[in-house]
Amino acid sequence: MIKYKLICKDCNNIFDSWFSNSKEYEKLKKKKYLNCHICDSQKIEKTLMAPNVLNSSDIKSKDINKIKEIKSKLREFQKFIKDNFKYVGTNFAHEARSIHYDPKKKNKAIYGKASQKEIEDLNQEGIKTDEFPWIEDKEN
Ligand SMILES: [Zn+2]
């Protein structure tokens, strides 16, 4: 499997798509099976390629230190979120909407889990969300 970042030339929407190999991408593009899920345009182009899996044997010790550093930064960030945001679990999409549509709740900050589809729906309704990787505490 290979992951490509695709960009829509009409609305500049950038999205990820998986293909079994690079030939499949070319084939689908030629047959016009690739289209933008925002504006339905077929002017889809490939942007830079994102490696789909981190192969552990490819990681040098220098990189491992870098990863540790990033993980510790993420943990700091998570602590900040936990201290300042209300956890709503899988209710995230519902809570985000209720805050968005209720002016009294405007400044409430929440965090939780949402599916890619829920995030897309929220974005389309003009509700801003931020995504970041979450490290489970058990990795400590
Ligand atoms: Zn588009």
Describe what is shown at a glance.
By secondary structure, the chain is of the alpha+beta class.
Characterization of the model:
With 140 residues, the chain is an alpha+beta fold. The chain folds into two domains: 2-49, Rubrerythrin, domain 2; 59-139, no CATH class. Helices cover 37% and strands 19% of the residues. A three-stranded antiparallel sheet has the order 2-1-3. The longest helix has 24 residues, at 61-84. It is flat. The model has no long low-confidence stretch (mean pLDDT 83). The structure holds zinc ion (ZN). The site of zinc ion (ZN) has 8 residues, from loops.
Keywords:
4 helices; alpha+beta; 140 residues; Rubrerythrin, domain 2; binds zinc ion; 37% helix; two-stranded parallel sheet; 2 domains; three-stranded antiparallel beta sheet; flat
Mean of residue pLDDT? Answer: 83
Number of strands: 5
Biggest sheet, spatial arrangement of strands: 2-1-3
Q: What gyration radius follows from the Cα positions, in whole Å?
A: 19 Å
**Structural domain tally:** 2
Major β-sheet annotation: 3 strands, antiparallel
Bin the helical content: 25-40%
**How would you classify the quaternary structure?**
single chain
- Approximate shape: flat
| SSE order | EEHEHEHEH
User: How many individual helices?
Assistant: 4
- Ends distance: 31 Å
Stretches with pLDDT under 50, minimum 5 residues: none
In percent, how much strand structure appears in the residues?
15-25%
The structural class is: alpha+beta
Bound molecules: zinc ion
